[in-house]
Amino acid sequence: QKEVEQNSGPLSVPEGAIASLNCTYSDRGSQSFFWYRQYSGKSPELIMSIYSNGDKEDGRFTAQLNKASQYVSLLIRDSQPSDSATYLCAVNRSGGSYIPTFGRGTSLIVHP
Amino acid sequence: KAGVTQTPRYLIKTRGQQVTLSCSPISGHRSVSWYQQTPGQGLQFLFEYFSETQRNKGNFPGRFSGRQFSNSRSEMNVSTLELGDSALYLCASTPSAWGEYTDTQYFGPGTRLTVL
After folding, report:
1. What count of CB pairs under 8 Å joins A to B?
2. Residues facing residue B9 across a β-bridge
3. pLDDT above 90 for A14
4. Which of A7, A42, A59, A84 has the fewest Cβ atoms surrounding its Cβ within 10 A?
5. What is the rounded average pLDDT of the residues B70-91?
6. Which of A99, A101, A104, A106 would best serve as a mutation to test chain B binding (most B beta carbons within 10 A)?
7. Are A86 and A108 in contact (CB under 8 A)?
């Protein structure tokens, strides 16, 4: 059973729009949640981490976490063509260990 | 600070051979994790090393092994290569300490392994 689910996309949005990326997870004890951006042919780059329910904003990015619904999302405001990439959701299991589980990623295309 | 470095960047091997990949973490980082990334399975955790000890391990067969040296550099070895081992192997370092699990990871550029 897949533990972290993401819509593979592609999600296509026009430049300047809000891109909304979603992720669900199955482990109710998960404590840490991350969004990575991965450009084609490059390695993942951490863009947001969130640990508590609610919203966390960093520039044009907002991460939203709802542990009751086991749902984490990433909003990208004023999307730019340079935001076109695959966005990976990652969840760290509970219990003091560090065995992160990644979703397969959502491909985002921002067209001019 | 210099980032995470991995060598070699590209590697071609044949089935049955073995391969060793190397990772140098960011200076001062003591935790190194290894991942396999494939189009079919996505990014999967292999193992994590801290202070020369394997601290965590993912669900991979024993053909996949690793080690860490006193300078925090890490190597990963895959024995008896199979076609399905073709993947991008990523290394990530974190500024972790004993008893702590720092979640912020910094990935290296990866080693692209092709098994023929």
Report:
1. 49
2. none
3. yes
4. A59
5. 96
6. A99
7. yes
